């Protein structure tokens, strides 16, 4: 490898660790916040019918702008400077994002715990502004990376455009929808934009990056990479506007539901599931991230959920959105993070854990959502409580497993951590 590729040096190598740690630490107060909303009698708790959409919007933003996005940003800061031999990113960018992100999440959760509706809305607005600022702050180095790749004729597959354009534009749209939430349909539009456009596109990009670039499976031709993502974005935007029009009484609910399923089904079909199954099943199965592979499958599950007639939403505003985040989005982001971490340990892909326990924990949480949707009430009056405990158990178990992996590999393992991850050249080939 040394003879063919220039081995780069990046002072940001390893910066994913504090971002990953921040992500997992902030998950704990998030779960406490959800528990508080479930157990209390506040004006905006889950026991009330009022402000249900607002709370769903806030909690989703906490996930997508907050603790889950921290892992995405950690991957960006660690990988991009190495794979693209660029000094666009600095420790200042990393530390600034980390600080602002934690403060923003803390303010939002503090507002929820205040048990004061007007104060909560004010603190949420401030928190969302800070979270948006943190994400916008990475737009410039990402854009600079894209420009440098063009000037130096470095092939980065325009991957830098995701944090450079998609994420900052998305957060501004979502923030604007929150600020002007009194306008009919804007809150629903921002909610769908956050989940389907931003998080869905990130998940799809990570799936393509893993199987195409990291593993060189060529599920999608390089020339088709951008069209696949572009078509998904168009379908996702169509859905968002159909939601807006539905809330204003200009289209039917069926149109909104069908438009919701289209980007998810396209994401599943466009990533060549048949070809993927041939690579992961049988005696000649190839090593890969089982989390990311399962995340790809869940695109199909969520797409079908979106078009099932009379599918019960339970206490959720949109149970398909919740399922997408809990399954596809979380599995692809965490799977990408773990795979990058193992690359830094230079652990052979043939000896890496399949992480079946993580898949089982995740499946328990997804099952609770499916049972809500299909109105399964075998637990009688305790049904809602059982489903809540299933989801909490699933998330806490996945979180604990992630912490165990990092602690074991960084402090108890005999493997050497390397500044340059193995096979980094595949991202630039």
Explain how this protein is built.
The chain is built from 14 helices and no strands. It has 2 domains: 13-158, no CATH class; 183-422, no CATH class. α1 (16-39) runs antiparallel to α14. It is globular, with a radius of gyration of 21 Å. It has 429 residues and is mostly helical. The model is unreliable at 1-9 (pLDDT under 50). 45% of the residues are buried. The longest helix has 32 residues, at 52-83. The protein is 70% helix and 0% strand.
How would you concisely characterize the structure shown here?
With about 425 residues, the chain is mainly α. About 70% of the residues lie in helices and about 0% in strands.
List keywords for this structure.
single chain; 429 residues; 0% strand; mainly alpha; 70% helix; 14 helices; 2 domains
Strand content: under 5%
Number of domains: 2
Mean pLDDT: 88
User: Spans with pLDDT under 50 lasting ≥5 residues?
Assistant: 1-9
